[in-house]
Each structure stands twice: as C-alpha cells, then as structure tokens.
Design goal:
275 residues, alpha/beta, Rossmann fold, 6-stranded parallel sheet, 7 helices, 36% helix, binds NADP nicotinamide-adenine-dinucleotide phosphate
Length: 275
C-alpha cells in the first residue's frame, strides 16, 4: 500500500509556482474573505496565507464578524472586485448560515479562483488536487469504475465531471443513496467528500483500490478526521490520509489558479495598452 504524502507534492507545486511568480511584473495578490468563526476556517486561512507567502504571492485577509450582514459581505467583495491590485478573491467556506451563497456570484469571474461562480473560468482547487494526485501517482483513469461519494459544487460535482472527461465510469452517491457498501465495494477508485468522520469503514473498500479521502472534520480533540477510517489504508493500493493528503495539494492548486488569473490579467492589460 502507498500512503500518499500531500506535503511532498505540495513542495513540487510550490517550486513551479515560485518560478512562474518571479516572471510576473507584480506578485499575484489573493484576498481571502473570512466571515465568522467556524472552528477549522482560521487554520485553513493561515495555511493558504503561509503557502502564498512561500511562493512570493501577497495574501490579504479580511475577517468579518459572525453577525456580518449580507450587505457588509457584498460591500467587501465589491471593493476587492474594484481593486486592480487584487488578482483573486475567495470566500472561506462555510459561511454563517444567515448569509446567502449568492454572495459567491458577486465575485468578478476573472478573479473567482475558487471557481464557484457560474461564470468563473476556473475549476475549484480540490477536484484539481484529486486529479493532480492521481496523475502524480500514475493511476490509470480511463475505463476505471470510480465511485464519488458527495455531489457538492465544491468537490463531488466537479470531480465527477473531470473523471468522466478522462474516461472513467463514474457512479455518484449522496445523502439519499442509502447503504453505500454495494457501491463502494465495486470501486477501483473511491473518492469520498462528505464531512462525516469514518463514514467509510474498511469493509466498504475493495481490496487493491485507490482511496481518496477528501473529507476533513475537526474533532473535539482538535485533530482533523477523514471520511474514510484510516484502517482501510491496509486494503488500498493507494490511500490519501487526513490530514496530509488532499489538503496540502488543494492549497497548491488554489495558487495555481491565482497565478493563472494574474498572468491572464497582466496580458489583458498589455493588450489594452497596445491595442
Ligand atoms: P458539502 O457541500 O456539505 O457536501 C457534502 C456531500 O456529502 C453532499 O453531496 C451530501 O449529499 C453528501 N452526503 C452527506 N451525508 C451523506 C451520507 N451519509 N452518505 C453519502 N453522502 C452523503 O461538503 P463539501 O464542501 O463537498 O466538502 C466535503 C468534505 O470535504 C468536508 O469535510 C470538507 O471539509 C472537505 N473538504 C476538504 C478539502 C481539502 O482540501 N481536503 C477541500 C474542500 C472540502 P446531498 O447532496 O444529498 O446533500
């Protein structure tokens, strides 16, 4: 069994991005809007900020209080849309429940590096990270039966599309699927993005399969717990642990999107000047 190390791949991604950043006239700038105090959010925001700084990007953090209104949040986004020094804007999820997801549609599509707005040209970072891991580990995708547990716009939905584009035969499970075992035990590649610790037990995993454990839930012990029981790793040919698997690669792919956004914005400014 190979236990995938997300930090090793993150370092390789960082190296490539650092070179790309050095070739740009200004450091790419990301604004992270954090609203409220969801327990895991501050940790994720800090990791993004640290990674961005490592590769030479600028990361602004705007932290609004839990009780911020929809108007407060909209104003914060509009201000970042209008700032030409800002290349990318993300809202750290989850937002407080009283706020509408419509907020995400307000982000200027060319700055929407989380890819959650309907006109964004970007794919969300986590599905990109899953594909990057499968390619890094030289996993054949075409023709493989892939079971994706979860169908959100952030992870399950787009990873299903990406796997289908690469020729996988994909079955999607969700909260109404009932017993997951008949599906998961058929999977050559099992991708679990739910947010329920140990939802998938070793008995639910096919021997020799590739298991991508995406969900991460912060427990009362202060540790992140994955959706797949770590004991299932012994049955898998490749297993991504939580923490230290998909998470670090996701951060790398977010900044891959940011650098692409900054490049695109720089070249369109040049075109405007010369045209
Ligand atoms: P989400 O929007 O809450 O979606 C969860 C999905 O799981 C939904 O499609 C839901 O089905 C499904 N689901 C819920 N209970 C289920 C059950 N008992 N059996 C099967 N499916 C079930 O969450 P998300 O944004 O996709 O994130 C999922 C997990 O990934 C979270 O733990 C999140 O923290 C983690 N995550 C990790 C990274 C990373 O970098 N490692 C990045 C993003 C997210 P319905 O559609 O029917 O409701």
């Amino acid at each position: 069994m190979t236990r995938f190390n997300g930090y090793t791949l993150q370092k390789r991604i960082a190296l490539g991005l650092k070179h790309a950043v050095e070739s740009l006239p200004q450091p790419p700038t990301l604004t992270i809007l954090q609203i409220g105090n969801h327990p895991a959010s501050s940790m994720y925001v800090k990791r993004k900020q640290e990674f961005g700084q490592t590769i030479g990007c600028k990361v602004n953090i705007i932290h609004l209080p839990e009780q911020a209104s929809q108007t407060d949040a909209e104003m914060a986004i509009r201000k970042q849309n209008d700032d030409p020094a800002v290349n990318g804007i993300i809202v750290q999820l989850p937002m407080p429940e009283h706020l509408s997801n419509d907020l995400l549609q307000l982000i200027d599509p060319k700055k929407d590096v989380d890819g959650l707005g309907k006109d964004s040209p970007f794919t969300p970072a986590t599905p990109l990270a899953i594909m990057e891991i499968l390619d890094d580990q030289k996993i054949d995708i075409a023709g493989k039966h892939t079971v994706v547990v979860g169908r959100s716009a952030l992870v399950g939905g787009p990873v299903t599309r990406l796997m289908q584009e690469r020729g996988a035969r994909v079955t999607v499970c969700h909260s109404k699927s009932g017993d997951l075992t008949p599906f998961t035990t058929q999977a050559d590649i099992l991708i679990v993005a739910v947010g329920k610790p140990n939802l998938v037990t070793p008995a639910m995993v096919k021997a020799g399969s590739v298991v991508v454990n995406v969900g991460g839930t912060l427990g009362a012990d202060g540790q992140l717990h994955g959706d797949v029981d770590p004991e299932a790793a012994d049955k898998a040919s490749l297993f991504t642990p939580v923490p230290g698997g998909v998470g670090p690669v996701t951060v790398g792919m977010l900044f891959t999107n940011l650098v692409a956004a900054a490049k695109e914005q720089t070249s369109s400014v040049k075109t405007t000047f010369s045209g």
